[in-house]
Structure formats: C-alpha cells, structure tokens
Amino acid sequence: MPHSGAKIGKLRQWQFLKSAFWLGCSAFGGPQMHIPLFSKRLVDNKKFLTREELIDINAFCSILPGPSTTQTITAVGFKLGGPGLAFLTLLAWVLPGALIMSAFTLSPAFLSNGHLRFLEPMVAAFLCYAVYSMFQLIRKDNINYLISLLAGIAGFLFRNPLIFPLGVLIGGVISSNFGNRQFTPNPQPFGKVRWANLSLFLLIFILIGGLGMVLSANEDTLGLSKPVVLFENTYRMGALSFGGGNILSAMAMEHYVYHKPYMSIEQLNTGLGLIQGMPGPNFNLAVYLNGIAMRTSGFGFDGQLLGCVIGLVGIFLPGILLVFFAFPLWNRLQAYPIIKRSLDGIFAVSVGFILSAALIINEHFWRGISNIQSDASDIVIFILTCILIFSQKISPPLIVLGTVIAGVLWSVYGW
Fold this sequence. Notes:
By secondary structure, this protein is mostly helical.
C-alpha cells in the first residue's frame, strides 16, 4: 500500500479510475452512504490508501464549501496521481448520475411524484444505516463521540445553514486540544500550492456574479441572459453551500421556486425525489434544476440540454477549484500536530450532522404516518429496507430499483 502522499503507477491509476466509475454508478444514498462505500471499495478491497487517510481527506473537504464527497474522491485522485488523475476521477464519479438525471429531466413524463412515493421511507432507512456505519469510522475517543452527538443534536434543534461551519470550527478546536491522536509527521515532500486555482475561483465568482446581477433584470428581453443568470445562480450555490445536499435543497427552493419562479414546488419535489434514487453526488440535483428552468423559460430540447450542462459545470466547478488550490496547502498544514488532531473532531462533526439529517428525515416521515393501516405500505418499505441494508445481502442499487418499481406499480394499479 502506498504511504501518505505517494503517487501510484499508471496501471494502478487506471484501476483507481475504474473504481471511481463503479462508485459513480453504484453509490446511492447521498454522502452519508458514500464514505462507507469509499472505505469498502478504495480501502478494504483495493487498498489505494488507508482508512485514516480517507477520513482525514474527508474531514479536510468538510471544511470547504461544495459537495464534500465529490471533493473527497477528487482529492484522493489528486493524492494518488496529481491534477490529471483528479480531473478524470471527478468525471468518472459525477457523469453516470448526471447522465441519468439529464435523461429524466429531458423526459419528465416518465416518472411522477406518485411513482416516487416510497423513496421517503427508503431514504429514512438508509440514513439509519448511515449513522450506524459512519459512527464506526470515528476515531475511538470519548471526546470524538461526544462531539458527534452534540453536533447531531445541535443540527436537529437549530436548522440553520450557519450551524455547519460553526460546528466544524468548534469540533476542530476541541479535538486539537483534547484529542488522543498521536502525531506522525508526513514523510513526503509537500505539493506546490496552486494559487492560480484560487484566483480563478474568485475571478469567476466576481465576474459571473456581476454579469448575473446586470442580466437578471433583463432576462425576458435578452435571449442569452437566461443561461448566464442560471450559471451564476448555480456557481454561487456551489461556492457557498456548506453542509452538503440538504443545504443545496434549501438554496434551490429559495433561488428556483421563490426568488425567481423557474419551477413549481411540485417540480422541485420531483427533482428531490429523483436525486434520492440517483447514484453519485446529490449535487447532480443542479442538472435537473437548470434543465427544468430552461424548459419553463420557453427553450426547446437543445436549450434544456444546455441547462443540464450548465448545472453540471456550475455546481461542481467552484468546489473542485478549491480542492486543486487547497489540497497541496493542506498537505503543508497537516505537518502541524494541532491541525492533524483537529481532523478527528471535524470528521466527528460531519458524522453528527448525518445524525441530525437522519433525525430530521425520520421525524418528517414518522409524523407523516397519520394512520397505521392506510400507511402500512410505507412502514413495510422502511422496515424491509432496514433489514436489507443492515444485512448487506442486497446491494443499495437493487434496493433503490426495487423501491422505484414498487412505487410505479402502486401508482399504476393502486395497490
């Protein structure tokens, strides 16, 4: 196994890309399921890196805005093969889900909310398993478990986007001062910090933001303004979204339903349901958002396809530019014991917010059970999913497929 910072050969790089593509096709359930799957595939099965390295990289990515699991697997590619492998890793990870999401977006009559009715109890069950599996990855230390539990409770009680960066900061400070990790210096030479990537990130943010403000007042009169404004919306969401897919969903409701009526709340809910059944990152929701926004603005198939591309590029570009800038810098910073020890608390906070997401989703699901008899089907789906996912006898993609099929049959035949 390569030690920390080591590059791998061309053959192993190809094997890593195949693993990233396999994960992009099969990693359902959102970020709370992704890290356990990364650990199983990349650490246990293929031994590309150690579990500690994976957890540290994920903790580092949790500090950054954007899609944390996408940044995690991209940073692993950067570590193993440099910027070239990192970019190919990004494509292998995001494209399978993005292409499927684009297909559904461009043919919306295929599935409706009724067909997706069983996804909520399935997701509630997936999150229960995610909390269990992620807690296994926390470094064994009472202070880390306490940090995780407190973060979970805080995220459940105070449902504010600011709670995530604040929790990361507090968790890192606590573990850096009271954690039990033994410090081992990084034996590898540090990578060169790429300031150009940070400059490009800020330049795009400023230029597109300014252009978007000007054009947003003329969307109906300037034909090309709509794609630019949508790209600005999407880039801004990707650049400012701390806390993963749940925060993105809230931002999408504000930007695409209320502030500018690009779609109805029913259309947004359909997209939120679809993304739960998609492999890969939940940030692929932006593909759906912009494709539908272009349709409601009167664009045809080509314009809607352009909207899907805008969503794909706009939502992932800022987070990946930050990884390309910050990962070599992080390699330098982790030479300091206080930084290294803080990663345990940061990861514990991330797990805590998965716990809060599980509590929120399950609260919403169980409160929606108004009558045990009439909602027995939802309870059966929840229990059956829990049994299957905890037993690990059936892979998550098959569970998702079976849940969608059950919803379609229910909708068609009224079972």
